[in-house]
Amino acid sequence: MGGYGDVELITGEGKRLDGRLADELRPISIEVGVLPAARGSCRMTWGLNIAEVAVYGPMEAHPRKIQRPDRAVLDVRYNMAPFSTSDRIRPGFNRRSREISKVTAEALESIVMVEMFPRSKIRVEIEILCAEAGTRCCGITAAAVALADAGIPMKDMLVSVAAGKINGVVVLDLDKAEDNYGQADLPVGIMPNTEELAFLQMDGDLSPEEFNLAMEYNMKAAKEIHKLQMDALKSKYEGGDQ
Amino acid sequence: MVEIVPRLLKDQLSRLAEKDCRIDDRKRFERRDIELEVDVLTNAEGSAKVTWGGTIIYAGVKFALREPYPDRPAEGSLMTSAELRPVANVKYEPGPPSPESIELGRVVDRGIRESGCIEMSALCIVPGQNVWNVNLDIHVMSDKGNIFDACALAGIAALKTTIVPAERYDVGEDYALPVNKMPIMCSYRKVGGRFVYDPCEEEELGGDERVHITLGDDGHVHSLQKGLKGSFSTSDFAEIFKNAEEQASELRKMVEEKVN
């Protein structure tokens, strides 16, 4: 959080700078099977964000020391393309992308039925091609769809979405300016059928009341996004040539 | 490890070659369908997406200000890199860039750089003090064969649509990056004893040596690279060079229609 609470992000009519209401998402589109070399794949656009995810495996886990005798391990990489932000990013991993890869892997391991594939690994490659705040949510949401597209058995879907606070007002799905000058950001990963959380982060400043409202916004948005995930998966198998 | 599948595949490709056939039913010098899209990434100053058969490549251009090289005080510079990320195929492992990845980046870079397509003097702001460095980053998202040609095509198309972001850096007005030439790469693979154009994934797995040819607008050659084990005659080379001239002019037309 930049913490510059004095930057005007909400107009007199309660509209945000891009015209959205407090509990409104940016436009989202989801497409599956977009990368022919992958076993499962997904392209998600979320506002100006673009994420493409490839899933490979289950395959033999190597080096052997990463193998688990009772389950598969998820090998997840979150990577921002050098041209994805306004200043070029040097290729390679940095602390931020490593942390996001780690929490994403742990979130996805909570929904994938990893115990079905002992000693194997499932590779999830998240590439952020265009970044405008909210890329980790976009990556996790797209990764869950790509895993389903790859036919990996899962207990539930996973939707990641964030609510936050700007100018003292709780809002859903912060864009770039709101993220830079806002006061709080609460990204979560919600399993839509059980409403359990498989991913949770937060930074900034929220009162308990504000936290509850932010979670309420997230929960409502997760249901909306879940519908888009399922529509994308169904459209690949419905109404085709089969 | 004995590579059983490539061995069997090699035999199959040889049998097909005897009948002058290819594994995906193409003719020797027939290429797969290409879809070229430009201006696809809002945060890049120029961008392109190439879908070449099942191969998918993104290219994006970014700028940075820097001090010029002492021997060229009034010229900007170009840095091209291509990354073979593990997203692109199950065969690519994470980690530092592999020799294959470095070769790809350098071969694509040479074709674009040596063609002199970018007017480097147009990238000078204050001679001896401040010039633009152009970063062309090429991202391989799906490798189903012939990523070299697809990377080169995405790269030149991205440069052709690039706007120099001078206003954002407070050094004057934005202007279109002057790209006056259009280098095009054409790649051939020895499969079953003869060269084919635009190899698919199976042909790369079960094939032998490869040759990459980059040609400029005037038919001049700007970069050549032979890769992998194998050797070929000068008459073999003459045949593919002649074919490359035809392929390059077709691809050049495709880019021109897209960017103008």
- How many individual domains of chain B? 1
How many distinct domains of chain A? 1
What string, H for helix and E for strand, traces the elements of chain B in order? HEEEEHEEHEEEEHEEH
In the CATH hierarchy, the third-tier topology of chain B is known as: Ribosomal Protein S5, domain 2
State the separation between the terminal residues of chain A, measured CA to CA. 50 Å
Low-confidence stretches of chain B: none
CATH fold type of chain A: Ribosomal Protein S5, domain 2
Question: Can you tell me the CATH class of chain A?
Answer: Alpha Beta
Structure characterization notes:
- The complex is a heterodimer of chains A (242) and B (260).
- Chain A has 242 residues and is of the alpha+beta class.
- Chain A has a single domain (28-236), classed as Ribosomal Protein S5, domain 2.
- Chain A contains four helices and ten strands.
- Chain A has helices spanning 95-109, 135-149, 176-181, 208-237, and strands spanning 28-32, 40-46, 49-60, 73-80, 120-130, 159-166, 169-172, 184-191, 196-200, 203-204.
- In chain A, the strands form two sheets. A five-stranded mixed sheet of chain A has the order 1-2-3-5-4. In chain A, strands 6, 7, 8, 9 and 10 form a five-stranded antiparallel sheet that branches.
- Chain B is an alpha+beta fold and 260 residues long.
- In chain B, a hairpin with a 7-residue loop joins strand 1 and strand 2.
- Chain B is elongated.
- In chain B, strands 1, 2, 3, 4, 5 and 6 form a six-stranded mixed sheet that branches.
- In chain B, helix 2 packs across helix 3 and helix 3 runs parallel beside helix 5.
- Chain B has one domain (26-259): Ribosomal Protein S5, domain 2.
- Chain B starts with a helix and ends with a helix.
- The interface between A and B is medium-sized, with 34 and 32 residues.
